[in-house]
Amino acid sequence: MRDDIVQMVKLAGVVGAGGAGFPTHAKLACTATTIIVNAAECEPLLRVDQQLLEFAGGRMIQGLKAAMQATGAQEGIIATKGKYKAGIATLKQTMSDDQIRLHLLPDFYPAGDEHVTVREVTGKIVPQGGIPLQVGCVVTNVETLVNVAEALDGNPVTHTYLTVTGEVPSPYTCLLPIGASVAEAIALAGCYDLSGMRVIDGGPMMGKMVSSPADPITKTTKGLIVLPVDHPLIRKRNQSSAQIIKQAQSACIQCRYCTDLCPRFLLGHNLEPHKIMRAVRNMKANEEIMKMALTCTECGICEQYACFMALSPRTVNAMLKQELSKQGLKPNPAPVEQLAHPLQEHRKIPVKRLIARLGLSNYDKAAPWCDKEFQPTQVRIPLKQHVGAPAKPLVEIGAVVRRGDLIAAPPPDSLGANIHASIDGTVLEITDKVTIAPPKGGRR
Fold first, then answer.
1. 252 in helix, strand or coil?
2. What are the CA-CA distances from residue 334 to residues 88, 255, 322, 323, 330 (Å)?
3. Is the dihedral of CA 156, 397, 412, 322 positive or negative?
4. What pTM did the predictor assign?
């Protein structure tokens, strides 16, 4: 049965529904003692997981039980914030297995970081540079487990849940076809003109800037945040590398707040951003200090919350990671004895305070669940939406496909994920994306 579950999840193209999109079948093929559901949704403004708990909590638990069966886990823990009252009520009505329990978290950032979640829920510390499996845990999120349950019913991943919010008239959370454009998704929120606006794909802390409104949403798109071009978040992200380095060299006062509030430093990782900033400031190429950057997860606390000089340690780390990787350098070894900082419990970032610091209080609004089915003008489905190798097309231009048809698959014996058509239609173009247009007159 275990192999059957893994195979069905693989065929359905299930990947982690947030973050990098690690193929879920690879996680479920491992042996673990505990499955932890990351239902914290710690990024400000996003509303997907909390609403899925309320409206699809039973389906998620079905997926959790399947994941436990596949991995041999004896325990399933749903880690969610105590403030998600409606979702918690649904779960309590649905949970009937004494191997599954709730763990309620305070409202802090980054509650959804895998290492932080494992520490909060189990008390264990994942080794620096390691993964939760090293302490017997597999961490997955709510939507991923909903997709696991769907996969066991033979339904592949064709749509994604996301929140559209920010400078829009009607924020919402909805299920949309993969490959629909960012512009069309935002138009559903009543915003039809994006001139003078920029869009963040993901949360305001770790999300990426959308390069074009024509960009497609993917399996990992969890939110689209529309902000004016003069918003401080957007201005900061638009700074050039030269500006960022010059500011680091001229303005860092070595207060070490960036280090003292770093979640990974607080878990005993060999990561001290203030030392990296000092090395950049003094133009000293201390390799051991520079290699600390490879441990950074780019959570953004140092840059968006800790630094009152408005510097960018996270971005400096990201630039260093790219350069060090090009040079083939590896991260520093993990500490021999990795211990959490004695003040770790008291240095969590309250989300309300973070939202205010980010200048997002006016956008901290409900994004109600929307059940309306959406038919895009076309979809452009990327062949790489996940960790691993890009999928290879299995269809040709002119092919008529139906929603759920397999249109691309990873190369044999490689880590990757299947890609399926998200709408009925005809294949118009194949590049690094498969473009499908619906039949004239709408759905068939």
1. coil
2. 37, 25, 20, 21, 12
3. negative
4. 0.95
